[in-house]
Amino acid sequence: MSAYPPSSPPPDGSGSQGAIPLWAPYYGASLGIAFSRFFRKYATFTGRASRSEYWWWQLIGIIIGAIVEAIYIPSLLASRSGAGMRLNVGIVVAIVLGVILFLGLIVPELALFWRRMHDANLPGPLWFLGLIPAVGWIIILVLSLLPSDARGARFDRPPQ
Question: What is the Cα 86 distance to its own chain's centre?
């Protein structure tokens, strides 16, 4: 399987299917490649991200969230007493871990969505539609499922 759709030439114009530059979207990215590119492009809001890059990272995020929840929920249930709640180590660990993950991943998550929108030839600030109560997450889901559009190459900025 090639890294680019048959209708798209490699971003360097060489005609070869060699290594994909970091500034270009990686079509058909594996989980490992998506993970690596997520952190290598930590705060890069320019360029594009393929659906595979985006959705592999979302899977990783769900797994990380499930691990934090697996620490938090049993600790929360164990902390119940007859008259109220008491704080225990599991709750504190889960809350601290959740805050650290949120603060450490919010910027690259936003950047990845921004690049995903660029790959669909849409502006990145559409992310703000996700703030609409009750339906925002549906809008984000639909937008992130859109196919790649070759016209999105206008958002690419290869190094000079």
Answer: 35
Residue carrying structure tokens 């690596």: 36
Helices 89-119 & 31-40, crossing angle to 10 degrees? 90
Q: What average pLDDT does the segment 17-38 reach?
A: 89
Q: Are 89 and 76 in contact (CB under 8 A)?
A: no
Over the stretch 120-156, which tens digit does the pLDDT of each residue have? 999 999 999 999 999 999 999 999 999 999 998 888 8
d(CA 102, CA 104): 6
End-to-end CA distance of the chain: 29
Longest alpha-carbon distance in the chain: 70
- Comparing CA positions, the residue from 64, 32, 34 lying closest to residue 49 is 34
Length of the chain: 160
For residue 147, report the phi and psi dihedrals to the nearest 5 degrees: -75, 165
Amino acid at 95: I
**Three-state secondary structure call for residue 18:** coil
Q: List the beta bridge partners of residue 80.
A: 85
84 has which bridge partners?
Answer: 81
Can you say whether the dihedral through the CA atoms of 87, 93, 96, 97 is positive or negative?
A: negative
